């Protein structure tokens, strides 16, 4: 009986350790955001405001700032971005958009605060009016100890 108990206790310990490793490996999934760019005039420092988000870490009213001007080169936006989710939670990335097709790609590579370890790859598309959507994948990966 003790050998069988030891065997099962070992299996339970192994299962618990595997679930801990899985929990520490982060989380990932689909990201769906809509942003309103009515206040963005296309100049460096322009911004859009998040109006729909399925991620708690990127709440509605988060702001996306664009470092470079739109239209340089002609018809494109190719800019560094800062996603400011408020309360010191920020992520950095890059967006490229072709205005002739109203489609593009944004990638986010890391962040601080609740967005530490955040990465995303999203397709950009025009919704209508001043609304644009970001749809793609995201992950949160734990940061190494310092």
Report on this structure.
The protein has 146 residues and is an alpha+beta fold. Helices cover 16% and strands 48% of the residues. The chain contains 1 helix and 8 strands, in the order αββββββββ. It has one helix at 2-24; strands spanning 27-36, 47-53, 63-66, 76-84, 90-98, 103-112, 118-128, 131-140. The protein has an 8-stranded antiparallel beta barrel. Residues 4-24 have low confidence and may be disordered.
What CATH architecture label applies?
Answer: Beta Barrel
Q: Which CATH class applies here?
A: Mainly Beta
Query: Can you count the helices?
Result: 1
Number of separate strands: 8
Q: Which structural class is indicated by helix and strand composition?
A: alpha+beta
| Unreliable residue stretches | 4-24
List the helices and strands and how they pair.
Elements: H1 2-24, E1 27-36, E2 47-53, E3 63-66, E4 76-84, E5 90-98, E6 103-112, E7 118-128, E8 131-140
Structure in a nutshell:
The protein has 146 residues and is α+β, with helices and mostly antiparallel strands.
Which terms summarize this structure?
eight-stranded antiparallel β-barrel; 146 residues; globular; 48% strand; AOC barrel-like; alpha+beta
């Amino acid at each position: 009986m003790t050998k069988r108990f030891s065997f099962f206790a070992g299996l339970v310990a192994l299962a618990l350790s595997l679930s801990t490793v899985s929990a520490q490996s982060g989380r990932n999934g689909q990201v769906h955001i809509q942003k309103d760019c009515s206040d963005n005039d296309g100049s460096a420092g322009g911004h859009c405001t998040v109006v729909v988000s399925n991620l708690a870490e990127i709440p509605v009213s988060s702001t996306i700032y664009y470092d470079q001007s739109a239209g340089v080169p002609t018809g494109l936006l190719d800019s560094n971005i800062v996603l400011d989710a408020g309360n010191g939670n920020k992520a950095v990335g890059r967006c490229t958009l072709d205005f002739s097709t109203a489609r593009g790609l944004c990638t986010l590579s890391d962040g601080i605060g609740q967005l530490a370890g955040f990465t995303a790859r999203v397709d950009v598309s025009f919704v209508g009016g001043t609304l644009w959507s970001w749809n793609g994948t995201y992950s949160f990966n734990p940061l190494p100890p310092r």
